[in-house]
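Amino acid chain
________________
===
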Amino acid sequence: MSFLDPTILKGDHVVLEPLGHEHHDGLVEAVRDGELWKLWYTVIPTPEGMRAEIERRLGEQRAGTMLPFVTRRASTGEVLGMTTFCDADAASPRVEIGATWLARSAQGSAVNTEAKLLMLAHAFEAWGCIAVEFRTHWMNQQSRAAIARLGAKQDGILRSHKIMPDGTLRDTVVFSIIAAEWPTVRTHLQHRLTRSAG
């Protein structure tokens, strides 16, 4: 499979399908679950800004730097959020899993664990990536803990890395999983899924 070719990733708890404009209304409902755009340390679209965010991600897909997905609950088809492969480097090859958000009611469930398992398996097994990266705001303790629970290791902190929409500076924490670690991480995530309910 070619790098960043659109594909559907299916599991028992979650389905990741290529993002399209037809997902707009479902994504608006999902982002309202927890009013996620009000979190100051992350950038999540408002209901009014969802159409522009979908187009931005699709624009990056056309440019060959992103593969955006909508996240659905497998049992009901309910739209729960968005995630992407981004900052892709086909020559290395490596990719970041990021620009992810989930409706509040889906957070802490098997949905995120299985979505990451599906994406990591695709990156390492279909694309042959040498590394998969995760990045988050230093202040986003929930995200940092979730990334560490996946089995990713912290590489470092990029100080004053980005200017946030409110003008504050973001220190970006960088994590990664490398190809040699993938078999152990895969077993770990599979074990977590057997112990959790979707």
